[in-house]
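Convert to structure. Protein one:
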Amino acid sequence: MEALRSIVFALLLFPAVIGAFVWCVVLLGKILSVALPGRRPDWRYSLLRWGAWMAGAAALILYLLGAGSVAMSVNESSQGADSTPAQECRDDYSMDRLRGQRGSYFPLGFDCVLDDGGTGPSTNAYFWLNTSVAVSALTAFGLVITMGGISEHRARVALRKPLVTTADNPPDSDTCS
């Protein structure tokens, strides 16, 4: 079981660290390409599509970093003579109140189990990490919705169909109302 935890840690954390570095380099390159002259004519739509992919990648990278951190905390708290309760829990709660710890991958967290059956967070970092993952994912989703709206608008303009039907401007016979 301990070997499996180490493998999960390596599979989650190390690729995410490399991905975070690559993400930052790609972001810097895109900022330079937008700031310098010689952009493509459709650079705004291309930038929306790129931003959606990058926000989705950021959500995935942040989640993998957090999951790797949870796996590392679980692994450290289950090995050695003085590993339970976890050091993070000992720093925040008195030893007579602690009964153990629990890792969670959705939402990300490493909680300390208390004697009354309740739990307490070992650190506030997981709150910020979960918030960052959610904001990045929602940003990616919002950009995809915006791209769909722009594509729909372009298609309507190309076909010269009205966006709003009124008494003066009835819908075509091939559209449903």
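Protein two, convert as well:
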Amino acid sequence: MILRKLLPSLGTATAPALTAAALASVALASALAPAPGAFADDTGNPAPPPGSGPVCAFYDGDRPTAFGEQGEQVSQAQCLLANRHYLRWSAVDGTFGTETLVAVQRFQADHPPLVPDGRVDGATWSALWHAGPNRVAPLPFP
């Protein structure tokens, strides 16, 4: 209704463009919404939309983190690893345990020149932020 009131003041040539833009916005929003029942794992965590960037918002620094640590930086690394399909979403718990260590090492091995030492340093943070999804599903935990 508001669009119809604005359109006469904008001119007739603009009306189809605005209508097309509005329809495109609705189509984009519905395409990005995860499908009902689409889950990344059996815990009920919704899967990020295909091709999406990281949806992590725990920590935005690059302080090194390693096995045995806990906190926001660990949650951030885990979330980025889960987005890249190196870690199960249910393993994102803020504790840098064995499963996270193995996921970091696998990620590093797949992204040379990173050294697969399991330590998330500045170079690994950068690679985690800039890499796309690498795997279809998380690797099994040994």
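The helical segments are 2-10, 14-32, 72-83, 98-110, 122-130. The chain is about 45% helix and 0% strand.
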